[in-house]
Amino acid sequence: MTLEIPQVYRYHVFTCLQSRPEGHPHGSCAQRGANSLYDYLANSLEKLGNPDIAKTVTGCLGFCLAGPVMVVYPEGIWYVPRTREDIDEIIQSHFVDNTPVERLIIVPRS
């Protein structure tokens, strides 16, 4: 028997807002501007008004030196957005047009 699990959202974005003290060897996404990018993402998604896209703030996702990072499920695609324009491109290309933004994808390594 196969368990069928319904998909609640088409996309679910997890965004790291981890904050560590200045000088911490791992750094943190918050020190690299993740908070303002997340605020912009949240406002942009609200304006888009698509209930099939969810967003969740997380603590450390484990790839601090690459930050800020976000991961989009169900694909498990990791992005490193640096600007509001990057966020706009992810929203339009990935969430609206169903095409991941290759230039912003990373393959996390520990």
Describe this structure in words.
The chain has one domain: Glutaredoxin (3-Layer(aba) Sandwich). Helix content is 25%, strand content 19%. The protein is built from two helices and five strands.
Short description:
This protein is of the alpha+beta class and 110 residues long.
Quote the average pLDDT.
92
Distance between the termini: 36 Å
**Spatial strand order of the main sheet:** 2-1-3-4-5
Name the poorly predicted regions. none
What share of the residues does DSSP label as strand, in percent? 15-25%
CATH superfamily: Glutaredoxin
Give helix % range: 25-40%
Count of alpha and pi helical runs:
2
Please state the CA-atom Rg, rounded to the nearest Å: 14 Å
Q: What's the shape?
A: globular
Question: In terms of structural class, how would the helical and strand content be classed?
Answer: alpha+beta
The name of the CATH topology is Glutaredoxin
Q: What's the β-strand tally?
A: 5
By CATH, the architecture is named 3-Layer(aba) Sandwich
Topology pattern, helix = H, strand = E: EHEEEHE
Key words describing this protein structure:
single chain, 110 residues, Glutaredoxin, 25% helix
Provide the fold topology.
Blueprint: E1 11-16, H1 34-48, E2 53-58, E3 70-73, E4 77-79, H2 84-96, E5 105-106
Parallel strand pairs: 1-2
Antiparallel strand pairs: 1-3, 3-4, 4-5
